[in-house]
Amino acid sequence: MIRETDTRDKLKKALMILLNEKSLNDISVSELTKEAHINRGTFYLHYDDKMDLVDNLVEEIFEELKEILMSEKIGSKYSYDIIKKVIDYVKDDFDFIYALTMNSYNYINDMLRKFLLALIDTLPELKHSIDNHPFLPKDYSTEVFLSLNSGIILHWIRKGGVESTEELANFFYQASNLKTT
Predict the structure, then answer these.
(1) pLDDT in tens, 128-138
(2) Among residues 90, 78, 88, 106, which one has the least CA distance to residue 179?
(3) For 82-96, what is each residue's pLDDT tens digit?
(4) SS3 helix, strand, coil % of the chain, rounded to 5?
């Protein structure tokens, strides 16, 4: 387990470095393993190919975010503190998330939207509020939720995370019409 985590961490760091130099499509497994100082056999023990590595790293991020979101929900709304914890998590891994987002924006946007859709299905209170929006049909209220949440976070990432996590949490909080508890 420790060796597997060490290998993942080395590959994640190598991927981040290479993403700052070239596109994801132009990165080879050989370059990744060379930068990570591991052999190709070790890579293939853990991953099928480069995209399997990327998918695993992104899924790991979203799983952590899901745990944070589900940890302390309050009624049908999330508190400012939960929103801030999510943003703090992104900020803690910002260099990797930034490199991947800047290099593979459409991929990250698609993964983020899939994550948010799964979150709707996971949280009955959120699903109920989207399904029962007072002014919009369900498909439109779902799209507003997806666009609002993905738009704010992706814009912040593309800008380089210049606003503090507190400022961004306030943007989410205000944009979602969440009330202070």
Answers:
(1) 989 999 999 99
(2) 78
(3) 888 889 999 999 999
(4) 75, 0, 20
